[in-house]
Amino acid sequence: MKQYIIKRILSAIPLLLVISFLCFVFINLIPSDPAEVALRIRQVPVITEEAILEVRQELGLDNPYFIRYFNWLLDCLKGDFGISYVNPKRTVAGELLRCLPATLQLAGASFIIVIVLSIPVGVLCAVYKDSLFDKITRSIVFITTAMPSYWIGLLLMWIVSLKLDLLPTNGNGTWKHLILPAFTVSLSYISTYIRLIRNNMLENMKQDYVLYANVRGLPQKMIFLKHILKNSMHTCIVAIGMSIPQLISGTIVVENVFAWPGLGTLCISSIFNRDYPVIQAYVLLIGALFVFFNLIFDILQTVSDPRMRKEA
């Protein structure tokens, strides 16, 4: 088991290197000259070739391509992601840390909503298969899965905030500001996990161990909770764990709809301002989060499932 964990950790290192390299390459494929963009953002009245060369030297853009990548990678390992073009007095790491708490608050609230709603509803849909409740729930799941998050956010804002005047439309500061954006982010994930949990439980109900448990005369409640539900949740651990980085990255649109001051709002404003260091650091952060949570929950699933532990 220890060898498997060490092997999984070591396999994540080259994946992180590939992500960092692709992130660096794609940002540098943008046709605009970063030095010229930095000068325009700083509102330099006259941009000359001498000024561009000076800024290129300041930003280290005059070095060869791979040297720039390795220098950037080493700085990232030290926690130094560069300087923001928009405000040279602020570091990229400082900007990310400034906006990260708001995004974590939104993603955390969304994750709680996903867990609280998807698990019991998915279980009830499996228990009462093909009932009226199951059919209505599956119809709602089908509709909400097809609805984009920005449209859901605008619809909730129009109904709940403008028509009913129950919750604020934008900003943050109180728990009331958190409800609409958190529910908007979580709605598509709720639909996904309701369907996943329902299908897993129905599949486990057909297994032989359920038949043998019934033959032994075990109580239906024990069969359901200790066998069917437990085995069904094993296959959902990785999927639910991977929803954490998806929730963090998925807030980018919702944050802009509700004017939530998080990483998503920072990323969109950086895209419009062509603040390349911030965009680069954001993409690298999201990629690293996906690798990290996939590693953690893959190990947890292997430890909790005897079959996978035996294979490992």
From TrEMBL:
Q: Which UniProt keywords apply?
A: Cell membrane, Membrane, Transmembrane, Transmembrane helix, Transport
The record ties this protein, via SUPFAM superfamilies, to: MetI-like
Which spans of this chain does the record mark as coiled coil? none
Q: Which NCBIfam families does the record associate with it?
A: Opp1B (NF045469)
Location in the cell reads: Cell membrane
Origin organism is Candidatus Fimicola merdigallinarum
Family affiliation: Belongs to the binding-protein-dependent transport system permease family.
The identity of this protein, by name, is ABC transporter permease subunit
| Membrane association type | Multi-pass membrane protein
> What residues does the ABC transmembrane type-1 domain cover?
100-297
